[in-house]
Amino acid sequence: MLKFEYEAIQLNRLPWRRFIHQPNPVACALMAKMKMAPRDRPKVKLECLRLLASLKLDPARSKLIGVFIDAYLALSSQELGEYERQLAESDPVERNANMELVSSWERTGIEKGIQQGIHKGKEDLLTIQLEQRLSTLPENITARLDQLTSEQLDDLGKVLFGFASLADLEQWLSQR
Question: d(Cα 117, Cα 132) in Å, to the nearest integer?
C-alpha cells in the first residue's frame, strides 16, 4: 500500500510581502493569490509587475505570467486609479520597465486580435457569398476554408463570382 504525505500550502494564507524579493517567476505569479489586505491590492499588483520586469524573461514567459497576474488580481476602476498613482510615484527606471512590459503585452495582444478578427471577418464574408452563389456549403468545404491564409482568402474573394458550381470551388481549393 502506498501512502503519500505532503504539506498543503494555502496561498491565501501566505503573506505576499515575503516573496517581493524572490527572483522567481513562480513566486511573482503566485503573489497575486496570496494573503493581502484589500487596500494593498494595487500595491501587490505593482510589486508583482515590478518583480516580473526585473526578471528579464523572454516575452512569451513574461506575458504568460502577466496574464496570470491580471486574471487573479484584476483591479476595480478605483483600485486601478490607485495603482496608476503608485506607479507614477515609483522610481522612473522601474516605472519605465513596468510600462514597457505592459505595453508589449498590449501591443502583441491587440495586433494579434486585430489580425484574427480581420481573418475571421474575411472568412465569414466569403462563406456567406459562396453560399449565396452556390447554396449551403458542405462541412468538408468549410473546414478547408478555415485553413486558408488571409492572402488565399483575398484571392478567393477575387474569383468566387466566376464559380458556376461547387465543383469549381472544390477545384480552386485543391490547387491551394
Answer: 22
Global pTM value: 0.55
d(CA 40, CA 17): 10
Give the three-class secondary structure for 165: coil
Fill in the DSSP letter of residue 147: T
**pLDDT under 70: residue ranges of the chain:** 103-114
> Could you tell me the three cell numbers for 160?
468566387
Q: What is the distance between the alpha carbons of residues 46 and 171, in angstroms, rounded to a whole number?
A: 56
Enclosing H/E stretch for 158? helix 150-159
Domain boundaries defined on the chain: 9-90, 115-176
Amino acid at 159: V
